[in-house]
Amino acid sequence: MTIKKVRKAVFPVAGLGTRFLPATKAMPKEMLTVVDKPLIQYAVEEALEAGIEQIIFVTGRGKGALEDHFDISYELEATMKARGKSLAVLDGIRQKPGSPVYVRQQEPLGLGHAVWCAREIVGDEPFAVLLPDELMVGGFMKQMVEAYDQVGGNVIGALEVPDSETDKYGIISPGKQDGRLTEVTALVEKPKGKAPSNLMIPGRYILQPEVMDILDAQEPGAGGEIQLTDAMAKLIGKQPFHGFTFDGQRYDCGDKAGWLTANLALGVARDDIGPAVREFAKTLFA
């Protein structure tokens, strides 16, 4: 079996960010910062670390700031140079010509629809999908690509959650296990009652291009939206399908409490501001 290299990554970034209003009224939610770096930059860096060569943003109206972030900023860079300031803080943000690629999702019809909007750019290659709301610390996509290079097919992120929380997420129904790889026999969206496992899907995917053919049907699922989970489920049994368990730290930054937690956790871990943040945190619980 020839396993094609994963070269492309899709970032669905067309969401309105209503849970963070009024902050996101005029600013893309993906530009919310954790310490001094926007969420989208964390996700892109994770993809680049994994060897991804082409970044594909599925955007919507009002996302201009996101596009500008990864472009050259003549005024800023010229002013910093003139004042003798280092540009090191901007290193690696601007991408090579031709990447990122931007495609619009004109209507908010679900995650599956957003991924489908990138079909012409993905072509006949396997591709990664990263949801920037999910901040992963620990090089998750790199680990997933390494696992994919061994088993091929489809590899989705898996994260252990308490049994009491399985009704909040898409859950993997597991087959054989081999270390951190788990065969996926089914996907269950927000199971009621006893869940088939405590492995949820935390917004990281490596998928074969055939999923686009399934999404072509535009079949609505939960909430009347076109669900990526439904399309993935139809690949199970036809192609290798595994979950890969993350051993790092995940922060749900689509949630205000999760976003604040991420800022505190990553702030404390920094050499420059960590001591000050830690001292302040102590006063809150004194």
Automatic annotation (TrEMBL):
Its EC number is 2.7.7.9. One of its GO terms (biological process) is UDP-alpha-D-glucose metabolic process. The keyword ATP-binding does not apply. It catalyses: alpha-D-glucose 1-phosphate + UTP + H(+) = UDP-alpha-D-glucose + diphosphate. It is an enzyme of class 2 (transferase). Keywords: Nucleotidyltransferase, Transferase. InterPro entries: GalU_uridylyltTrfase_bac/arc, NTP_transferase_dom, Nucleotide-diphossugar_trans. Residues 13-264 form the Nucleotidyl transferase domain. Pfam families: NTP_transferase (PF00483). GO terms for molecular function: UTP:glucose-1-phosphate uridylyltransferase activity. Gene3D superfamilies: Spore Coat Polysaccharide Biosynthesis Protein SpsA, Chain A (3.90.550.10). The keyword Transcription regulation does not apply. Belongs to the UDPGP type 2 family. This is UTP--glucose-1-phosphate uridylyltransferase.
